[in-house]
Design goal:
Keywords: Membrane, Transmembrane, Transmembrane helix. Pfam families: DUF6691. This is YeeE/YedE family protein. The chain is mainly α. The protein has six helices and no strands.
Length: 152
């Protein structure tokens, strides 16, 4: 049963992206074009997401246990730092230029459009490059800490 719940959630999410128009770059770009031909209809999608998620988080805060897991896995609060701002800016620029973000891009792969395929391959390459860079930073930091601990 633990595999069926995420599968159903993913199907509902994917259907929601498709029905709402989030997989249509022109729809997203119209929403982001505030000073041009602004299309506010995606605000309904965001409002619906909040209407579902806020009560869900409130239920989780009551100490109830999830049906298919031992505990809820939610990120803790963290401060606003340079990597967060940089990542948000890069995400925003990419979303604004192309009208796609990761979820809709993956869903759009079903069209086999060459542009979508190139976008997803480039997105995956960027993710892998970031992971490699992050891993090398962590490894060099660990090495420095180990060296200073053994020298001192």
């Amino acid at each position: 049963m633990w595999i069926i719940a995420p599968l159903l959630c993913g199907l509902v999410f994917g259907a929601g992206l498709l029905i709402s128009g989030m997989v249509q770059p022109t729809k997203v770009l119209g929403f982001l074009d505030i000073f041009g031909t602004w299309d506010p209809s995606l605000l309904v999608v965001m409002a619906a997401a909040l209407a579902v998620s806020v009560p869900g988080f409130r239920l989780a805060d009551r100490g109830t246990r999830p049906w298919f897991a031992g505990q809820y896995f939610r990120p803790g609060k963290s401060g606003i730092d340079a990597p967060l701002v940089t990542g948000a800016a890069m995400f925003g620029v990419g979303w604004g230029l192309v009208g796609l973000c990761p979820g809709p891009a993956l869903e759009s792969l079903a069209t086999l459009s060459p542009g979508i395929i190139v976008f997803v391959v480039a997105m995956a390459a960027g993710m892998m490059a970031h992971d490699g860079w992050q891993q090398s930073r962590l490894t060099s930091q660990r090495d420095r800490e180990f060296a200073s601990a053994t020298d001192g």
